[in-house]
Amino acid sequence: MALFKFDPRRSKKKGAFDRLIKALQGGGEEKRATAAEALGELGDERALEPLLSALTDEWLIVRAAAAEALGKLGDPRAVGSLISALDDEDEYVRKDAAQALGEIGDAEAAGPLCEALKDDWMPVRAAAAKALGKIGGPEIVDPLLAALHDPEELVRREAAASLKRGGNVEALLSALRSDDDKTRKGAAEALGEIADPTASGPLISCLKDSSAEVRAAAARSLGQIGEPRSSLHLMEAVGDESSSVRINAIEALGEVGDSGAAEVLQALIDKGDMDARKEAYRALEKLKRRTGKGD
After folding, report:
1. Long-range own/partner contacts, residues 9-15 (CB < 8 A, 24 or more apart)
2. Has residue 144 been placed in a domain?
3. Of the residues 2, 75, 268, 288, which has the fewest C-beta atoms closer than 10 A?
4. Which residue in 203, 193, 273, 194 sits closest to 237, CA to CA?
5. Closest Cα to residue 238, out of 201, 198, 211, 269?
6. For the segment 77-113, what is each residue's pLDDT rounded down to a tens digit?
């Protein structure tokens, strides 16, 4: 939570540990929170039990600071208490507990963190998705794939990064073949976020998907990946019946297009609708800068 500033150099002085423990156990709430943060920086394993006690403090700022500090200590003995803190009434405590569990990296936390992907507060879900990537394991794949449906971009991005970190790009590629439109869309977006070149072929195929949202996501992701071989297919997508697909394809051509794409973009500037003209102009300027063929 990091609500208060302190000088880590002071916490390393002789006798600092005892003073911090005293402050943690007997000061006001702000002083206790600052002491908890400092103990995390100090990294002394003797702070484990006092910090575990602080994790049930009546003040949320103390509980949150204790959770963060326990993550920095990295002691697996804190896992059980941090898992309990995932159910804390305060969202900041839940977020810091999720982050701490990721720092510790104990497999025991995988299941509870998968449940935290359903938390009402977006930062908790994002923290849980990131933490799962640090823990790994086969049981996290399906929950992270489900998190690709999350309405918040940060959660989707963290889920995608965690899947990649665990070597689960194949799971994302398989998700492109799901019967569920949202799953295909989420997988297409995730593959663009992690920019894995092996996804170019499957994403090109998604430009023909029955769902316009999937096609639009695929077009955008192809631009993010930047593989030149997608240029021809994106030029075809410029004629898609969906405006969102057309706009994303135009934007992507600015990232991957060649001389043929420049002609298509110029034609859109000359004869396209207003939105297409604006996007085509920006894409063409970007293409010229990228290829060094500006006027």
Report:
1. 11/38, 11/39, 11/41, 11/42, 12/42
2. no
3. 2
4. 203
5. 269
6. 999 999 999 999 999 999 999 999 999 999 999 999 9
DSSP H or E run through 82: helix 79-85
Provide the 8-state DSSP code for 7: -
Question: pLDDT value at position 273?
Answer: 85
The total number of structural domains in the chain stands at 1
Q: Is residue 46 part of a domain?
A: no
Domain that holds residue 207: 168-295
Which CATH number belongs to the domain containing residue 210 in this structure? 1.25.10.10
Q: What is the pTM of this model?
A: 0.75
The DSSP symbol for 208 reads T
Q: Does residue 283 lie in a domain region?
A: yes
What does the alpha-carbon distance between residue 276 and residue 248 come to, in Å, rounded to a whole number?
A: 10
Both tokens of 164, joined, read 């990649």
292: left (phi over 0), alpha (psi -120 to 50) or beta: left
As a whole number of angstroms, the distance between CA 287 and CA 252 comes to 10
Residues in the chain: 295
Whole-angstrom Cα Rg for the chain = 24
CA distances, 110 to each of 83, 99, 115, 132, 148 (Å): 10, 12, 9, 6, 17
Q: Token digits for 64?
A: 């949150």
Tell whether 187 is covered by a domain.
Answer: yes
